[in-house]
Amino acid sequence: MIHAIYRIPDDAGSLTWLARLPTGLTVAKGPASRIDWLFLDSFDWRLFRAGHVLRLAERDGGRRLEWLPDRTAEPALVTEWPGKAPPSWPAELGMSPLAETLAAALDIRALMPVGRATARSREFALLDDNEKTVARLHEREFAARGLAGGRRTGRFRTIDIDGLRGYGKISRRIGQAFRQAGVAALTPTDVVAFAAAANGRPAGGYSGKVDVVLRPGQPASSAARAILRDLLDTIEVNEAGTRRDIDSEFLHDYRVALRRSRSLLKHLSGLLPEAERTRARLRLQRLAASTGETRDLDVYLLHMTEYRKALPKRLGPGIDVLAAHIAAKRGKARQRMLRYFSARPTRQFLADWRRFLEQAPEDADVEDQPGALDFARARIWKVYRRIVRDGAAIDDNSPAEALHELRKRCKDLRYLMEFFRSLFPKRDITVLIGQLKRFQDNLGAFQDYAVQAETLRAYETELRAGDALPRKAEEAIEALVEQFDGRMHAARAEFQARFGRFAGTENDKRFRALFRGDKTRKGIPA
C-alpha cells in the first residue's frame, strides 16, 4: 500500500531525492509507465470537501474507477469501467460497494469531470542488505490538461512511497527523511486541485453560499452591491448547468440566488437608485416565476423514492403512473423556462444588472449612508422583532396562512444574517443562525406537507380528466395525501415548542447583544 506522497521541488532531479534515502538501502530502477486520470466530483465539490477522490484511471487500454476516501493515498474501492464516457450517477455502476458509497456521498448531485492529468511514472525498488525488496518508490511527473484537450497547462512531480507488508518501519523512515529535507507531503486531493486549476475552476471554489467579506464602516450601498454581485455570479454559473439539465440542484441554487437577491433589494430603499432597484426586483421576480413550475416538478420526482417506501409494494404501479405524469409535465415546463432564459429582455436585464453592480457607485450622497455594520444591525433587529411579535400571536386557531407568512419572514431574517455574517463574531452568529434554521425546519415541514397534499390532489384531478387514473394510482395518491395531512398536523402541534425555543430568553439575549449594539458583550449565553 502507498504510505505517503511527497512533492519533489521542480528544480530537483532523481539523484537529489535518492540521496535523501536512509542508509543501507540499494535502489534498483524499474519499469516506466503512463496513466491518465480523469477526476470526477459534483459541481459543488462534495467529494473534494470531504477529502475524497474519485478518478477514472486509464492504463494499458484498461479503464477503472478508483475511490480514495479520507485523503488516503491508496484506492479503497476499484471498479472496472468499460464505458467511453464517465458515469454521471452512482446507479450506472450497478449494485456495488462503490455505487453505494458514492450515492451516500453525493446524495442528489450528479458526477461531472472536474480535471484531467497524465502521470508518467518510473518505479524504483528499494532492497536491503539481503537484496529483499522492502519498499517501492514511484517517481511521477504530472501534466494537467483542460477537459476539452489541448496542450498541457501545468506540471509537478511527486514521489509515492509504496510500503510492503512487514516493512512498514522502513517506509516510515523514508517518509521521515523526506520531511526532514523539507519535502512537502501531499494527498490525492492536492492532485485534484492541480488538475482542476488547469481547467479554470479552483477545487472547492463553489458552495452556493454567500461568501463576501465586508468592512464594518463600508457604506451600506457598497456592501449591498458586493453581495448582489456574488449572488449574480451564482445565478450565472448555475444557469449553464440548468440548461444542460445535469442535476436538479443547479436550478435549486439558481432560484435561491434569485430569492436572496430580491430579499436584499427589499431592504435597500434609499441606498440604491430607485429606478434600478425597482426594475431589478421586478425582473428577478419574473425570472423566479419562470422557473417555479419546473423546480416544483423536480422536487416531486425527487420524492418518488420516498413515496414508494411510504406505501405498500402493491401500489408501486400507481406511483409509476404518477411519476410518468409529473415527468411529462416537467418536460413542457422546462421548455417554457428555457425559452424565457433565452428571451432578449432576460438577456438584456442580466447584462444591464451586471454593469450596474460593477460600475463605480453613483448612489446619492454615500457619505450620509449608514455603515454596513449599523445597517445590518438595524435591519436584522427589526425583522427579528417582527417575527417574535407575529409568532407570539399565533395559536391553535390561527389560519395556515399566518404560519406561511412567518416562514417567509424567517427566510428574510436568515438571508440578512448570512449576508452580513462576516461583520459579527463567528461563534455568536453561527449559534443564532443554527437556532433560526431549527425553527425554520418546523415551519418548512408544515408548509411542505400542506403543499404536497394540495398538489397531489391536483395531479389526481388531471389524471382523472384525461381518463388516465388507474385504481392503484388513485389509491396511492389518496394514501400519500392522508400521510401528508397527518404530518402537517404533527408539525403544527410542534410549533409552540419550536417557537418558544427560538424566541426564548436565552436566544433573545443573544440577538440583543449582537444587534442592539451592546458593546460590552457581557452576559451573552454560551
UniProtKB/TrEMBL annotation:
Occurrences of domain CHAD (ranges): 217-493
Protein name (Swiss-Prot/TrEMBL): CHAD domain protein
Database matches in SMART domains: CHAD (SM00880)
PANTHER family: CHAD DOMAIN-CONTAINING PROTEIN, SLR1444 PROTEIN
Pfam families: CHAD
